[in-house]
TrEMBL record:
CDD domains: L-Ala-DL-Glu_epimerase. The keyword Coiled coil does not apply. This is Dipeptide epimerase. Its EC number is 5.1.1.-. Binds 1 Mg(2+) ion per subunit. Signal peptide: none annotated. SMART domains: MR_MLE (SM00922).
Length: 365
């Protein structure tokens, strides 16, 4: 059996609530869904989300990479030789991690479908339920407090508060959210590179002095500033999570070498898919770093793959897999669903996706 066809589907799906961070504001998920079809007519799906401000990936760029390079390379190849196929994808092009992630995940999905097992079982796990946090989009203290109470009522016990838009008022935002939800909810912060090192230390020490009980702070400074990240980590007690600073293995090695962070956030669209993500998780664990598996703003395709990874490998902190929860409707048929703060994986082959909601897919080809 061989891979007979590679299809790409451009998807733009609306969010039910605007998503705002220190880097951007969006009201849609814009993504490329890649579909690999074998000679028996079975399909495997993967996803390349467009996130200009974080990865630099675009739908157009990912589509070109898949259609002009990665796809033709896979036609006629054996999808069951999964390790070899994934290694070929990683070697085929420099960068283009989102495109490589889409093809890598589609290969895993197709392999699992051909075996008739859920993707999590292919990865070595059995769990079909994975916890997630939920993000509170950046805003003023009053709006954040209201959103926090609503998410608490929705059943979420871990809130990820977007900060970094204004260091002078970020402490007030955290104080308002903690007052709104009480001591029983975990709060983590994500500055999305929005602070200078000195601002980060000032805000985090203010949080510590106020006893606001913050679980961790994600990417407080610019991704390229590993010295600044290490400087912050060395001067605060709250654990620091590296996100945009770590795309691949070399980045993680530098974070470990400099002791620049306490945890690392592994995202498929940053590192290039499930194959490299497993390497990052294993490397971090071997060197005593905590782990989180996160996501970009992506659909049930990417979240299903990330949740399957967590179900098989585990993380030291609750994963950040709420992206598809923000969608007003699903662009695929089947796949994961949310029950409160739990991502529920389908007990079906692969990702459990039977196809795309074609009426809602923007373009195909």
């Amino acid at each position: 059996m061989t891979i007979s066809e590679v299809r790409t589907h451009r998807v733009s799906a609306p969010l039910h609530t605007p998503f705002v961070t220190a880097l951007r504001r969006t009201t849609t998920v814009d993504t490329l869904v890649v579909e690999l079809v074998d000679s028996d007519g079975r399909s495997g799906f993967g996803e390349a989300p467009q996130v200009w401000q974080v990865t630099g990936a675009s739908v157009a760029g990912a589509r070109a990479c898949v259609r002009e390079l990665l796809g033709p390379q896979l036609i006629g190849r054996d999808p069951d030789d999964l390790v070899a196929r994934c290694a070929e994808v990683q070697r085929a092009v420099v960068g283009n991690e989102a495109a490589k992630a889409a093809v890598d995940v589609a290969l895993h999905d197709l392999a699992a479908r051909r075996l008739g097992v859920p993707l999590v079982r292919l990865l070595g796990g059995t769990r079909l339920r994975v916890p997630t946090d939920v993000t509170l989009a950046a805003g003023d203290a009053v709006d954040l407090a209201a959103a926090a109470r609503q998410r608490q009522a929705d059943g979420f016990g871990v809130l990820k508060l977007k900060v970094g838009t204004d260091a002078s008022t970020d402490l007030d935002r955290v104080r308002a959210v903690r007052a709104a939800v009480g001591p029983g909810v975990r709060i983590r912060l994500d500055a999305n590179q929005g602070w200078t090192p000195r601002e980060a230390v000032r805000v985090i020490r203010g949080i510590e002095d106020a006893g606001l009980d913050v679980e961790l702070v994600e990417q407080p400074v610019a991704r390229w500033d590993l010295d600044g990240l290490a400087w912050v980590s060395d001067r605060v007690s709250v654990p620091i999570l590296a996100d945009e600073a770590v795309f691949g293995v070399r980045d993680l090695v530098e974070v470990i070498r400099r002791r620049a962070a306490d945890l690392v956030n592994v995202k498929l669209a940053k590192c290039g898919g499930l194959h490299p993500a497993r390497t990052l998780l294993e490397l971090a664990t071997a060197h005593g770093l905590g782990t989180v598996v996160g996501s970009m703003m992506e659909s049930q395709v990417g979240i299903g793959a990330a949740a399957s990874l967590v179900a098989a490998y585990g993380t030291t902190a609750v994963p950040d897999l709420d992206a598809a929860w923000w969608l007003a409707w699903s662009p695929v048929q089947g796949g994961i669903r949310y029950e409160g703060a739990t991502v529920v994986l389908p007990d079906a082959p692969g990702l459990g996706i039977s196809g795309l909601a074609e009426a809602k897919v923007q373009a195909r080809g």
